[in-house]
Amino acid sequence: MKTQTITALKILLIMTVLTGIIYPLCMTGLAQLIFPYRANGSLLKRDGKIIGSELIGQKSDSIKYFWSRPSAIDYNPVPSGASNFGPTSAQLKKQVVQRRKVFAEKNLVPDTTAIPKEMIFASASGLDPHISPEAALLQVERIARARNFDISQKQKLIKCINELTEYPQFFCLGEKRINVLMLNLTLDNF
What we know:
Shape: elongated
Helix content: 40-55%
Number of helices: 6
Radius of gyration: 23 Å
C-alpha cells in the first residue's frame, strides 16, 4: 500500500512538472519564436506607445471616429462577458431602443433604415473589435461632416471601408467584417 502511494505521488510530481511547467514554457517559447506579434496580443503601437489591440474592441463615442459595437462591460477586458439579458427582458428592450435612437440621430439615419444588429446589441464577450461594412457605411456621413470632408475625401473613406473589409475565413466561417480600430487608425491618416 505504501509503495503504491509513493508511486502515485512520484507520477503526480512528474506530470505536474511536465504539464504544468515544461509544456507551457515550451509552447510559450515556440509561440514567441514563430509568431511573436500574435503571441503578445496583437498590440498596435504608434510612436512607440501601445494604442490598442487588434483583438479587443475599444470605446469610441466621438463623432469624428467610427463607433464599435456596444459593450455590456464598457470595453474592460478583465471581466469579459455579456449582460445576460434574455429576449424577454424589459431592460434589454430599453437598451436596444435607446441604442437605436442614438445611432439613428447621430448618424442622420431615417427611422425606416434598418440598423445593423451589432450597433444595437452588445457582443457576448463585450470586446468584439469588428462591425459589419454596412454599419461602417452608415457612419460615413457623420464622420465626413465632423471632419469637414469634401466629396473626394468622403469617396476615399468609402473606398477605405471596402479595402479594409475582411471576408469570412475559408469562405464560409463568419461574416464580412471590419476592424474598427484599424479603420479609425486609417482615418487618422486622411
